[in-house]
């Protein structure tokens, strides 16, 4: 997964601008199949599966019904041999403001643990075709996690990423602690998860580059230091100084 701060407008273009594609939309949503998402095929060759989260009043909070529909739409695009890639987007105000807090509010431990609550959420990460998140506005909690499950994130100017679960007395549950660490580095990920503070698209992009590189360099340096615990490192350098071929023993 990578953050790209490009103009997401291209991907967010309203379907009003492409009447020819509306028929494709109807194909996918015929019979009122979807209540919480808009689904259509886009692109010159009609080969991009386009899914728009559509619960504007709840800032696209990811209720159970929405996530089930998202899974169905992904299944359909996965099976459609004409579709080469999938785009998931929200609105300018919100990609998704997280799991639906109102739905979760009265859940008990027994229900969550015994019922493997929200286990179906990871469908996005198992799609074999490339999945792109076009993010603007809030991408918080499960919304940020959903974006990070995608292969690429195109982030618009108003995008805000955050894992504010701590402010609700809970923690990320859909890979936030793991994927955020890889996306922006451990330091910023910990800060975000422990404070609930958000970052914008530029900060996400910058951190993705700087921190993962810095961490990689730190790891590399420690591994380099570790070679000084081996006989072969000593032999290799000694052989160089003595102008002979090294006799490595794999030790
Ligand atoms: N769930 C339900 N409803 C929400 C959510 C949400 N996550 N976010 C916003 N809404 C609703 C509000 O309740 C409000 O509805 P109403 O008008 O009926 O009161 C409407 O959307 C608009 O929201 P606000 O009035 O609050 O709008 P603001 O512009 O003032 O604030 C914010 C926008 C900052 C986004 C604010 O709404 C907010 O903080 N939302 C909650 C963000 C949050 O905490 N997200 C994390 C949720 S927990 C989570 O995602 C855990 C995922 C675990 C997945 C596990 C898988 C295995």
From TrEMBL:
Gene Ontology biological-process entries: fatty acid beta-oxidation
GO MF annotation, one: enoyl-CoA hydratase activity
Compartment(s) where it occurs, according to its Swiss-Prot or TrEMBL record: Mitochondrion matrix
Cellular-component GO terms for this entry: mitochondrial matrix
Involved pathway(s): Lipid metabolism; fatty acid beta-oxidation
Catalytic reaction(s) noted: (3S)-hydroxyhexanoyl-CoA = (2E)-hexenoyl-CoA + H2O; a (3S)-3-hydroxyacyl-CoA = a (2E)-enoyl-CoA + H2O; (3E)-hexenoyl-CoA = (2E)-hexenoyl-CoA; 2-methylpropenoyl-CoA + H2O = (S)-3-hydroxyisobutanoyl-CoA
Domain of life the protein comes from: Eukaryota
Gene3D superfamilies attached to this UniProt entry: 2-enoyl-CoA Hydratase, Chain A, domain 1 (3.90.226.10), Lyase 2-enoyl-coa Hydratase, Chain A, domain 2 (1.10.12.10)
Keyword Mitochondrion listed: yes
Chief location category: mitochondrion
Pfam family name, one: ECH_1
Subunit structure: Homohexamer; dimer of trimers.
Full protein name: Enoyl-CoA hydratase, mitochondrial
Lineage, opening ranks: Eukaryota, Metazoa, Chordata, Craniata, Vertebrata
